[in-house]
Design a protein that fits this description.
This protein is an alpha+beta fold. The protein contains 17 helices and 17 strands. The protein has helices at residues 35-45, 74-82, 114-124, 139-150, 153-200, 206-218, 220-236, 241-255, 263-289, 294-314, 318-336, 338-384, 447-461, 481-494, 507-510, 537-549, 555-565, and strands spanning 2-10, 13-19, 24-29, 61-69, 90-98, 104-107, 110-112, 125-128, 391-397, 408-411, 414-417, 425-431, 439-440, 469-473, 499-503, 515-524, 527-535. The strands form 4 sheets. It has a 6-stranded antiparallel sheet. Strands 8-14-15-3-16-17 form a 6-stranded mixed sheet. Strands 9-12-13 form a 3-stranded antiparallel sheet, covered by helices on one side. A hairpin with a 2-residue loop joins β6 (104-107) and β7 (110-112). The longest helix is centred in the first third of the chain and has 48 residues, at 153-200.
Length: 568
């Protein structure tokens, strides 16, 4: 729901802050007071086009900010995750229209592009009236609402799951066939490359190991001389470090009976002597194991040259060479078994196609049953709303698939395109007068008539419609008397399922308000300013009375207002 709306420097509005409540929020006021400006601001908050002409004269920018309660709204959470935006229980949407720079849009204080604002609006609000933000006029959303009304989500989810597998297999087959042509052209070349690599038969990290071995062999004389001298100096000579340390240890040992303070140093020296012994052993063993073979140097150099050539052609590293060898081996294996793989995939595709066809036909049957229920409900509701001769119909169709596509199912032996929700294309059709042909709902011209049709549809679909906020602008156009009372009752009933914001001129509708706001305008310092005020119950009686009798409130209009409001 929309918790609050702030409008700054927008047309006649200098600064308005509105806190809306649950249920039915009614806005009234004299013609020209600024009601349509408020609806226009709400339209901008839903992603409508912005113009600098809307900025109040003398101001640098217009700011419109709405705070929504988004707690528990999974659709909004998924959208926020999609755009890496922080999801909070309160969702703050703000638009800034500036004279000097491009407009800026924010969601929870994070800059976003206008499309994100529009997507959020589509998930939260339905605005009906003189604006084009009307979800029920869009055929794809009409299908979505019919499905929500029908309550066959398990069947639809199964269709979506099978369709994903079906599409995946078709894509795999397409890639395989494209790859087949390429592989047949490259098969001989790949065979040559594999033979070239296999002839040398490199092993992982072989080059690094050989380079280390070569370095040792090329420096074997120095290694032999130096390791021998290290061993002699450490251990073997008469004046070796080992012997001198042993002599020192003996001297310290004579001091121990005199002063125990030398004990720690004696132990440290013992450890050093042991370490020197280990180091000496290492250099002796290394020297003994040196294998100086001049012929092996040439052998390693030749092997490294072979590996270097492979790395230049298929590298840059030996790891890359081996990975490439694995790749072309798999490609060649695939080339040998193309027919078998293609046949297997085609069999799987046909099996999935048959399953999809059955699911699509079941979905269509469920939808048509739901469509009849919606038809009856809407026609009945429209009669209550003063459109007595209305006929409503949900028409079904499908799109035939072209002969060059694999992505189709069979319906009545015809190739039919599939979409995310089956094969059905639906559209709402209506006729509001005797003798008139049924026309698409999107072609109905009268704003007030559209609003009542929307109200009828919303009343039927109310329990399943997931949009939390409905905005009705001038829903009472062409309505009066007894019908106005019924329109008010319908809106009130609908407000038990949605938050509703409605602009009205009718006392019968205004009397139903859970929260009532009055728009007015006045001159301040030679400038007209529109303002909005939330009124209490006593003020509400007076406002409803004004709608009945005008500015000159009579006792009769006050009594009538109380009667409409159910106040004794």
């Amino acid at each position: 729901m929309l918790k609050s709306l702030q409008i700054k420097n927008f047309a006649l509005i200098e600064n308005i802050e509105i806190e809306f409540g649950t249920g039915l929020n009614i806005i009234t006021g004299e013609t020209g007071a600024g009601k349509s400006i408020i609806i226009g601001a709400m339209g901008l908050l839903l992603g409508g086009r912005a113009s600098t002409d809307l900025i109040r004269k003398g101001a640098k920018k217009t700011i419109i900010e709405g705070i929504y309660d988004s707690a528990g709204n999974d659709n909004i959470k998924n959208l926020m995750d999609k755009y890496n935006l922080d999801f909070e229980s309160e969702l703050i949407v703000r638009r800034e229209i500036s004279l000097k720079s491009a407009s800026r849009n924010f969601v929870n204080d994070t800059p976003v592009n206008l499309n994100v604002i529009k997507e959020i609006g589509n998930l939260l609000v339905d605005l009906h009236g003189q604006h084009d933000h009307q979800s029920l006029l869009k055929s794809d959303l009409q299908l979505l609402m019919l499905d929500e009304f029908g309550n066959y989500e398990d069947l639809l989810n199964k269709f979506v799951d099978v369709r994903e597998k079906f599409s995946s297999k078709i894509s795999e087959l397409k890639r395989l066939k494209e790859n087949e042509t390429n592989l047949r052209e490259k098969k001989e070349f790949y065979s040559f490359q594999r033979s070239e690599i296999d002839k040398i038969s490199p092993v992982p990290d072989e080059d690094a190991s050989l380079e280390t071995e070569l370095k040792i062999l090329e420096n074997s004389e120095k290694l032999l001389t130096n390791t021998s001298e290290v061993y002699i100096n450490l251990y073997e000579s008469e004046n070796s470090i080992y012997n001198k340390l042993v002599q020192v240890q003996s001297l310290i040992n004579e001091l121990l009976p005199i002063d125990k303070v030398f004990a720690d140093r004696y132990n440290q020296l013992s450890e050093s002597i042991a370490s020197i012994n280990d180091i000496a052993d290492f250099f002796r063993d290394y020297n003994d194991n040196l294998d100086i073979d001049p012929s092996k140097i040439e052998e390693i150099r030749n092997r490294l040259a072979e590996l270097t050539l492979l790395k230049k052609k298929y590298g840059p590293s030996l790891k890359n060479v081996l990975e490439y060898r694995e790749k072309i081996f798999n490609e060649l294996q695939l080339a040998e078994n193309f027919s078998e793989k293609i046949t297997g995939l085609e069999t799987q595709i046909e099996k999935l196609r048959n399953e999809l066809s059955g699911l699509a036909i079941k979905l269509s049957g469920k939808r048509k049953k739901s469509a009849m229920l919606v038809k009856k409900g809407v026609e009945s509701e429209l009669k209550h709303l003063g459109i007595n001769d209305a006929r409503f119909e949900i028409r079904f169709g499908y799109s035939e698939a072209s002969n060059d596509t694999q992505s189709f199912v069979l319906v009545n032996n015809k190739k039919v395109k599939i979409n995310n929700r089956g094969v059905d294309n639906i559209e709402f059709f209506i006729s509001t007068n005797i003798g008139e042909e049924l026309k698409p709902l999107s072609k109905v011209a009268s704003g007030g008539e559209i609003s009542r049709i929307m109200l009828a549809l919303k009343s039927v679909l109310a329990k399943t419609d997931k949009l939390p906020l409905l905005i009705f602008d001038e829903i009472d156009t062409g309505v009066s008397g007894r019908i106005a009372q019924k329109v008010g009752n319908s809106i009130k009933d609908l407000a038990s399922f949605h938050q509703i914001i409605a602009i009205t001129h009718l006392p019968q509708i205004a009397a139903m308000a859970d929260h009532h706001f009055v728009v007015s305008k006045e001159q301040i310092n030679g400038r007209v300013i529109s303002s909005l005020k939330k009124i209490d119950d006593n003020e509400k009686i007076i406002e409803v009375a004004k709608l009945m009798s005008g500015e000159n409130i009579t006792d009769a209009s006050l009594i009538g207002a109380k009667e409409l409001m159910g106040i004794n």
